[in-house]
Amino acid sequence: MKIRLYLDEDVDVALASALRQRGIDVLTTQEAGKRQQTDDAQLEYAVQAGRVFFTHNRGDFARLHGQRVQEDRPHAGVIVSDQLPLRILLRRLSRLCFSLTQEEMMGRLEFLGGWR
């Protein structure tokens, strides 16, 4: 199954449109009506929606991933990235989404910097 993304509110919504043009299933925090929720609530929403979470908030979501691993609470996957130009984010996220499946992302923390 193809990766289904959920973009954190700190991610430019223009990225969602560009990803959709490439055939990637994307939902933004804004579209889900989940703005200004806690990081844990955002990740839990992604879990319930069966979506891989993408954020620029590396530190907090790496920590949340670690907590969930320790507590044996699975998630659908987390991708973190520095804030980069849209074209670079688009290229790297596309490469990741067309290389891995939704199932392969289960419980996984991916750093987008490794998808050059």
What is the structure about, briefly put?
Helix content is 47%, strand content 16%. Helix 1 (13-21) crosses helix 5. It contains 6 helices and 5 strands; from the N terminus they run βαβααβαβααβ.
Structure overview:
The chain is an alpha/beta fold. 47% of the residues lie in helices and 16% in strands. The protein has six helices and five strands, in the order E-H-E-H-H-E-H-E-H-H-E. It has helices at residues 13-21, 29-32, 39-49, 58-70, 86-99, 102-105; strands at 4-7, 25-28, 52-55, 78-80, 109-111. It has a five-stranded parallel β-sheet with strand order 2-1-3-4-5, sandwiched between helices. Strand 3, helix 4 and strand 4 (78-80) form a beta-alpha-beta unit. Helix 1 crosses helix 5 (86-99). The longest helix is centred in the C-terminal third of the chain and has 14 residues, at 86-99. The radius of gyration is 13 Å and the shape is globular. The two termini are 23 Å apart. The model has no long low-confidence stretch (mean pLDDT 96).
Keywords:
globular; 116 residues; single chain; 6 helices; five-stranded parallel sheet; alpha/beta; 47% helix
What is the strand arrangement across the widest sheet? 2-1-3-4-5
- Class by SSE composition: alpha/beta
**Rough shape?**
globular
Uncertain runs are none
Beta percentage is 15-25%
**How do the helices and strands follow one another from N- to C-terminus?**
EHEHHEHEHHE
Would you report the number of β strands? 5
Spatial extent as radius of gyration: 13 Å
Assign a percent range to the helix content. Answer: 40-55%
Helix count equals: 6
Q: Major β-sheet, in short?
A: 5 strands, parallel
Mean pLDDT comes to 96
**Gap between N and C termini:** 23 Å
